[in-house]
């Protein structure tokens, strides 16, 4: 089995039937956008899921990287996010269409409200969120956004949206790593059919020096970054978005390594997500088998 087919054979079903590839490539502005790394990931490594945001300011460059890679748009999963400065019905519609123009694409596979707190003085946050969400519902209906979701939303934000709107978000993208485990939110999302998507799998780099992470990495002959990404995949099957930067390119790995240390972690959540058990046994099959972009392609 080729690396690319292994990488892309793991996906998660959204409530509207679309399947989102589990491992995505982040393009946050923090640390800088690296054009070569995106082209390399798409062209040479077969990565097909990219996460970006209007806020990151790299939409034009990312569009260029996609065209440069030669990967057809239809083979990609592109997530983009709406910044609160553009919340409100009209502004949200315009911002989404502007993002499409900047990236030179006709649609996004997933479009998220980036943050629950709007920056709209004089109006209630709940009202602005609902109005913004209605714009996303329309963009979804029109096919501009194949799936729609939210990011950094807490249970109370999701409950309000459920009362005020008609489409339940397909995804909630939230910080998630061994030191940030919002268990009740994860359970709530699972109950509501909202896919929980984790970001910052390395705790923004801070997890890499933690003694437990280092001990497990040493024991299995892996890097701490690989252990963290593997942990994210194993525990609740979020799909971690990993950063794209020169210095961290080697972290763009899919680690097919079964971490027995954490296999019993959060048993309720572990059993709730239907796909998790199936995925876990698949990973057990690949026990101690590691695929690394650099070692395979260089
Ligand atoms: N929805 C949201 O609100 C939100 C918020 C944050 C992030 N995200 C998404 O999640 C993606 C990842 O977030 P993140 O940047 O916070 O990720 P992260 O994986 O938790 O942390 C990345 C940081 O770890 C450092 N690092 C050290 N060793 C590394 C290694 N071996 N491999 C990779 N990184 C290493 C990097 O340092 P260097 O700079 O030296 O490489 C970088 O500063 C973003 O690009 C974005 O797409 C979404």
From TrEMBL:
CDD domains: AKR_CeZK1290-like (cd19135)
Domain NADP-dependent oxidoreductase span(s) in chain numbering: 35-243
InterPro entries registered for this protein in UniProt: AKR, Aldo/ket_reductase_CS, NAD(P)_OxRdtase_dom_sf, NADP_OxRdtase_dom
The keyword Oxidoreductase appears for this protein: yes
UniProt KW Oxidoreductase keyword: yes
Keywords: Oxidoreductase
Pfam families on file: Aldo_ket_red
Coiled-coil intervals: none
Superkingdom field: Eukaryota
Gene3D superfamilies given in the database record: NADP-dependent oxidoreductase domain (3.20.20.100)
GO MF terms held by the record: oxidoreductase activity
PANTHER family per UniProt: 2,5-DIKETO-D-GLUCONIC ACID REDUCTASE, ZGC:110366
Family from the record: Belongs to the aldo/keto reductase family.
Protein name per UniProt: Glyoxal reductase-like
């Amino acid at each position: 089995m080729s690396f690319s087919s292994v990488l892309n054979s793991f996906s998660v079903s959204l409530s509207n039937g679309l399947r989102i590839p589990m491992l995505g490539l982040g393009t946050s502005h923090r640390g800088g956008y690296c054009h070569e790394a995106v082209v390399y990931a798409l062209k040479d490594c077969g990565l097909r899921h990219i996460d970006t945001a209007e806020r990151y300011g790299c939409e034009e460059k990312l569009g260029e990287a996609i065209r440069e890679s030669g990967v057809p748009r239809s083979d990609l999963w592109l997530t983009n996010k709406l910044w609160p400065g553009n919340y409100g019905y009209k502004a949200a519609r315009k911002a989404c269409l502007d993002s499409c123009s900047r990236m030179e694409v006709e649609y996004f596979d997933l479009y998220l409200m980036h943050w629950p707190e709007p920056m709209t003085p004089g109006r209630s946050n709940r009202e602005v969120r609902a109005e913004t969400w209605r714009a996303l519902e329309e963009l979804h209906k029109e096919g501009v956004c194949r799936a729609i979701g939210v990011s950094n939303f807490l249970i109370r934000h999701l409950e309000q949206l459920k009362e005020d709107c008609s489409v339940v978000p397909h995804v909630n993208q939230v910080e998630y790593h061994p030191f940030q485990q919002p268990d009740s939110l994860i359970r709530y999302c699972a109950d509501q059919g909202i896919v929980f998507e984790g970001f910052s799998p390395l705790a923004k780099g801070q997890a890499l020096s933690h003694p437990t992470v280092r001990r497990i990495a040493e024991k299995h002959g892996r890097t701490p970054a690989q252990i963290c990404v593997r942990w994210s995949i194993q525990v609740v099957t979020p799909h971690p978005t990993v950063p794209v930067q020169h210095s961290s390119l080697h972290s763009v790995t899919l680690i097919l390594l079964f971490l027995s240390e954490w296999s019993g972690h959060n048993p309720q959540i572990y059993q709730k997500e239907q796909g998790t058990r199936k995925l876990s046994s698949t990973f057990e099959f690949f026990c101690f088998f590691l695929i690394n972009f650099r070692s395979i392609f260089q």
